[in-house]
Every structure is written in structure tokens, then in C-alpha cells.
Amino acid sequence: MARELAGTNNGHARRFNRRVVLEAIRVFGPISRAEIARRTALMFPTVSTIVAGFLEQDIVRTVGRARGSRGQPATLIALNGGAAFTYGLHLDRNQMRAVLVDLAGEVREQAVRWVAAPDAEQTVSAVEEMVEGLRANAAVSPDRIIGAGLTLPGPVDRETLRSAASPWRDFPLRDALQKRLGVPVWVERDAPAAALGERLHGDGRSVRDFFYINFSVGVGGGLILGGQPYGGANGYAGEIGHYPSVKDGRQCICGARGCLETYVSVGALMSELGIDGKPDQAARTLAQLAEARDPRLHAWAARSADVLAPALMAIENMLDVAVIFFGGYLPKALACDMIDLVKPALESMRMSGKKRHPELRLATSGADAAAMGAAVLPVFELLAPDPNLMLKRTENSAPAEPARSVLQL
Ligand SMILES: [Zn+2]
User: Can you name the CATH fold of 206-363?
Assistant: First the structure.
């Protein structure tokens, strides 16, 4: 772990070191200065100076003293959650989710609205209303809000930041929201954002290489390699929903036939079971069927496991990740069912003599995962330092305005 967080004593990298120290405090806090120095391989005076700066900025706070150590007990440092807040917005084809998250990753307020393909203007107004409600309920001052993350169903074009699979494909949603909310807005595909949320706040904290499958109306995937998100050359890495699964199969919205998501997704499940009507009613119906352990769901999970297995095997063989998380808004029991059902199918495809393979695991944060991940976007670069970020920034991580000064590191 010390290696993962290793800082550098080189003067050019002061900014990076500050992020490394902040990351150590986030992951291991409450933590003493000496322990930070040990874990980051930075010199004690360097750590002390950085921590003093953080205390002055109110980003961290002292939370008592370490017990059991010899001599003067060391002061412990922890993130100050209330120092800064972000909004996480997840807009899908049938629902809008918003969360208000503090710097320590705690969800202070959340809201959901079920909508069927709203137009752009309605969407912007609804989002503004939702986040204002969250902020007022949590009694957070507007100047503590440092940004918002917005996730859209994939694929999302890296240059225009628009989602072809959304009702707002021809509308500059990011710019409009930035103007209305008065904070910088980051945009990401829903699945990679959910993966980021898992990495920063969920079980993914202790997993450096994982794939995250997001079962929503469609299906997407997000990839974390070496602890960092991997988007690919064009931002499409992980688009597992369009893995060709059934030859000459069902027509997909992407134009191809037989894509994975036309069989294994909440949208596919709903239409196979004939669940329709308003989005909130449909979601309730599905939850009730899952709770009653309806045999049709089990039958669907069994069929889905067969379609899903080759795609999972491709992930396993090409990426050799440690964990494949099942996330999104499939009912929990159904996702567990699917994990159990797909395991034997994978076993039959696996190279013989292989001692270790990816573990299939239920993701931590369920239906709010993409919104949680969205809330991470404005602070991820600050909280999870990657030396490469000192050299390059992606278009997507650089909104029109920088984050507010409360977190200028
Ligand atoms: Zn497709």
C-alpha cells in the first residue's frame, strides 16, 4: 500500500505530494503525521507542512490523539467532510437521480424522479429544482458546493459530451446545467462513473483492478486498472452492452443486432416480462416480483447467465481483473441469482490449470451507484492521485471553470 501512495520529495511535484497526502488521509484516516510519512515515503517535515496547509484550508481536521504509542501521543488527522460538497446527477432514459455528497464521501441528501424521456428544458429545470432542494435540506451554503458530476447513458461523445442514447442527444446539456447551477459540471458515461464511485467509496477501495457492470435500462461497463479509471483511446472502453452475443439477434439501439444489452439488462427484463407503464410503477412492479421470488425472474436470470458468460470470459481473459462487480438497478436478489447461475458456465469455458480468476461480486452502492460516481468526478483527481495526471489532462476532466478555491491544492 505504501508503494501505491508513494509521493516524491522532488520540488517539482509539490502539488502531487499534497494529493498523495490527502489520499493517505482519506484511505487510512484518522491517521497521524508520522504514519502518513511512513505510508507515502515522504519526509516527516514535508508531511507536516502539507497537513498544516490543509488544516488552515479546513480540508482536514484533528480528531483526538493516538492511544498506545510511547511518548507524546500523536494527533490524528481526518478529512473534514463538511469542507466541500458535490452534486452527483444520474440521468437515464426513465429516471433522474441526484445526491449531495460531502468531501468524505458521505451522502447527505438524495432524491429520485421517475420520468419518461423528458425534453431538454424540462430536464434542466428539474435538475435545478432537485439539487436546490437537496442543498436547502442539508443546510449547505452555496459557496461550499465545488462542482457537479453528470452521468448519461453510453455511449457519450468525448468531444461534445453528449449521449447518443439519451433524449438530449442534440442539446448541450452540460453547458446549460453549468449555467443554471453556477458550478463546473463534469460529464461521464454512467458505468465508468459507477466504477469510480465503487473505487472511491465502495468495496473497490481495496481492489486495484476491476471491471464494473452497470445493469440499467441498457448495460454498460467501467474499468479500473492499477487503481485508476481507464477510458480507452476514445472513451468507449468497457462498453460491454454492445458485445455481440447472439448472431442475427434482437435489434439494438446502436444499430447492430444481438448486442448483450438487448438480452441482459433491466430494459430487456421489463419487456420480456411485459412490465410497462410509468417508470416508477414499472420499477415497483419489478421490485415486488423480485421480493416474491417470482419464478419468471429466475428463468430470466438463467437464460441471461448463458448469454452473459462469454462476455464475462472475454473480460477475464483479456483484462485479468481481480473482481467483476455487478451493479446498477437489477433487484439485489436477482443480481445474486445471476452471479450464482453464471459461475458454472464460466467454469466450463475457463482455461484448464488456471489457479486464480476474477471474483464475481455484488457492487456496494446499488441504484445510486452512478449518481455517487458522478459526485466523485469533481474531486476524483484531487483524491486519487495518479502521477500521469501531472502530465496530461483529458478533455473530460477539464471543465470550463476550475473547481472553487476551497479545494485548490
Ligand atoms: Zn448495441
Answer: Nucleotidyltransferase; domain 5 (3.30.420)
